[in-house]
Structures are given as structure tokens and as C-alpha cells.
Amino acid sequence: MIDRTRCRVVAAIDGNHNGDPDVASRLIEAARAAGADAVKLEKRTVAQTAVRQVLDRPAAQYAALGTTYRKALERVDLPVEVLARLTRGAAPMETWIAAHDEESCGALKDVPFAAWKLEAPVAVHVPLLGALARDARPVVAAVAGCTEREVRGLVEAVGPRLTLLHAVTSPASGASGVLEVAGLASLAHFGCPVGYTDAALDAAPALMAVALGATVIEKRLTLDRTAAGPHHRSSLLPGELAELVTRVRELESRLGAARVPEPSPDALDDLEWHRVSIVATRPIAKGTAITPDMLALRAPSRGLSARFFDAVVGRRALYDIAEDDFITFGMVDL
Fold this sequence. Notes:
alpha/beta
């Protein structure tokens, strides 16, 4: 069962190994070193992926992988025995596998991976949903492009083992990427844990998703963004994944704190010239009992904190105090 007590950071390897099991192993090692909780692999029956006219169409954008879409997909589709070996080698990280069709799902049934990933294009693949429902493992489903009715059908088919991922397929970042995260909230009413996956290279949208309650963050991982293949350019490098994991854990620590975190020195410096403290509104002679009208709260923060205002009232001045002097502990008989 997926640990839902903290956000799972998942490194999606997908086809970024370009069909080389050794590269897949290196990607797994990079994910482990970065602190990821899981890696994601995928399996498909190529002939069932698309119609022949599409599969046999020349694919210039995948030229380094194959002359046609079919050949490129065959190149990156690793055999079941290789996926099993990679799964064992990924421990103690979990391995999640995205099956793209019912046949692949059946071929993987004896591989000891932790969870199924259901990609958005096949989230409405009814026979595949049936196969996943018959397996005991958790299912993490990306639902980009799904209607309310389709998501509800998915929830009904899989049941309580389901986590729904808000998937942003465009590589939005910055302000536009953060706005895209808002869709995460719309999944909460289905009663399932929710997560987030996108193609952004910056961490801001993913961190916002964590703050909104995401239990899974999925990011593609590559060793080289200039490598051949469709997803390398929108994938994180190992160092970037490590930075994301660190920031997710820091954010979780703050979100889970039982008390308000102590302000940082930088925050205190920024506030110093704007935060109010106790000052004298008029000259106060030594020995005078201080009344409320003798005091005010004004910036900058050089005197006693505003929370001591009532404690100062009624006390006697130990020295002559000038108008606009900051009231400090040594100036009144506390």
C-alpha cells in the first residue's frame, strides 16, 4: 500500500532510457541519490497503441529512435524480464509501472512492483481498468482530459486503492504553472487521495500542489536534456530532482509543525523598519507613573514589543524619558 502520511516524490523514467536497460539503471540510481520515493517505468503492447496508419508513419522527431512511430515505441519498450530486474534493483524505493493496455497488464502480474500508474490517454480504457481492478495493487491515475463522468467511472471501477493525479501536460511554469495547480482542488470531492504531475522545469507548481494536499508529485527524470526522444527536454536533471525533494520535505516540515515557525533573521531584518514598538508620546520625568496616554506604538522596532504595552502602564520611569524615545526594559520599573 502507498504510504499516504507524506507526499511521495516519483521519478518518471518512462522512455527516457531510450531502450537501454543500463541507462534505465543509471536513472534509477540517480533517483535514489536524489531522495525520490519511487521510480516509474512503463510497458505497452505496441501494436495496440494506435492504428497502423499512425504506427507506420515516418517519425522525423524520433529519428534517432526509429524511422517510424512503431519502431520508436518498440525501441523504448523494455521486456518484462528487464522491468522485473529493474524493479528489484530499485529497492528500497518503490517501483510503479504504467501499463498501457490489458495485455501488458497481464504480462506484468508476477513482477513485484508497488503500484500501477494509469496514464491520462488510457484513463478511459475500460478493459484496462477492469484488469487493474482485479489486481490488488494501488492505482495512481492521471486524469488530464477526463470529464466528471469519466473520473467518477474510474473511481467506481478501481475503488479505494485509487489516487487521482491532476496532470498538466503543457510545460507551464512560473505564474501560469501555479494557476494550473488550482485544478487539484476539483479532484478532492471524489473522495480519493490526490496528487500532481506536470512537465514544468521549475518547482513552484509542484510545491503549491504539496501545500494544497498532494500525496504524490511525479516528475520525469533524464540524464541529458539534449538526448533524442520526446520527453527529455521537459524532464528534470538529477540535481534538479534532488532540489525538488529537499524543498518538498522542507515544506512538509513547515506544514506539519505544531506551532508557528520562528521567524528567520532575514524576515526580522525586513520587518525592523516597519514593525511598531513602544515609544513615549511626551517627556516623562524620572519617578513618574506611566499612563496609557504617555505611550504609543510606532515604527521602527527599536523598543519593547507591543505585547508589553499593558505591562508598562502604571510602572514608574527610572530615568527622564524624552518624547519619541523608545521604551526599553531598563527605562521603567518592571
